[in-house]
Amino acid sequence: MSSSRELHNYPELVAEVEKAAIIESELGLLFFLTPLNRNELMDGLRSLAGGNKGLKGGGPALETKPVLWAEYPPLEFDPGQMQDKLDAMEHGPAASLGTLWTMRTGQLRRTLELLEARGSGSFTRLAEAEFGRPAPQLLAWAEAILSDPAGMTEQLVSELGRLPDQGWPSLPPPAESTEVDAEEARQYLEAVIGHYQLKGVDVKISDRLTARAMVEGGRLWLQSDILFSNDLLHRLAVHEVGVHLRRRSRRPTARHPLLEMESPHGPGTEEGLTVLTEAHAGCLEPEVLKTYAGRVMAIEKSFGDGAQAVVDYLAESGFTPEEAATLVMRAKRGTADFSQGGAFPKDLCYLDGARNVLEFIRDGGSVAPLFNCLLGIDDLPFLPPGILDQKVEREEE
């Protein structure tokens, strides 16, 4: 791959990178892994977490499906045609971008394979191959957090204060101590976007989210039917806008196409940055860090155990029935029978990403440039020297 200042096929390369982002949006991994009967499943999980172990389900003699059986929406694209798109993309003009492009197209292929495997016996195996399984060090950190959330949060904040500054985003919290609806929250977060001078990103409201807020592409989505406290708005401003949207904002000057590209390593670094950014800004609540640790442990337990054993463990670790139900729902997305072993380990990226970013900084690395691109720490060895500071010349159109 050329690392020269001039890229004579720059528009073509950027178009291919953007095409990959469009395909990822069309694949809609998290959307198509959200069960159609999510409310019914949550009711079943709440019942298990609340101590009702007599919930029906799972027995082959039952004429109806188990209460903990997930049903998924049909894919809104033709897998064969999507495969053809990926074939053309992998061997197209952007192949000159080298290893990172090969990794990017491979990630999209594996996402397609995961979606086609929803509810099958191969789903957990494919999900583990893509997102991994908790390492012993991560499990030890998660267990320590569950034992003392406040103490471990204080320890993390203290360490960040001693390490070199990384260009952490920071913003004062809203002035009034009130709760606001989704529309008022949207207006505040749009103002934060203006504060950061971000381009090509915005905030919308939806009634079909599994979280209070989420970023998809260059858009921040807010749940329509909840109230947003000022503490939550501060956290969303730092976390969602200061990291997620900042990494996706359009740049005023042309850069190397690799810096505009998502990568398989990007999400882990990004979520790790959000955790540490919250800690640095003073808005990482111990309960939030505890939730990240709970996600790790729910995933680890879900690999081998059904929902009942997982919610029992979470209850013993101090989670409410509602919290335990939500953790299990996230950990078992994509599997069919929640009463059996099976896991979707994507949520490891929060705590594992924080651990990896922290270790990188401890070793003298700087993550400041990664606030302004979509790459991850593990992508840095594949970049040509100086590319993070490099501007490229566009061809005259």
3D architecture notes:
With 397 residues, this protein is mainly alpha-helical. The protein is 51% helix and 5% strand. α8 packs across α12 (286-304) and α12 (286-304) crosses α14. The model is unreliable at 1-6, 52-66 and 393-397 (pLDDT under 50).
Secondary-structure topology with pairs:
Layout: H1 10-27, H2 29-32, H3 38-49, H4 79-90, H5 99-116, H6 123-131, H7 136-147, H8 149-162, E1 179-180, H9 182-196, E2 202-206, E3 213-216, E4 219-223, E5 228-229, H10 230-248, H11 266-281, H12 286-304, H13 307-316, H14 321-331, H15 349-362
Parallel strand pairs: 2-4
Antiparallel strand pairs: 1-5, 3-4
Helix pairs in contact: 1-5, 3-14, 4-5, 5-6, 7-8, 7-12, 8-12, 9-10, 10-11, 11-15, 12-13, 12-14, 13-14
List key phrases describing it.
disordered C terminus, globular, two-stranded antiparallel ribbon, 15 helices, 3-stranded mixed beta sheet, 5% strand, 397 residues, mainly alpha, disordered N terminus
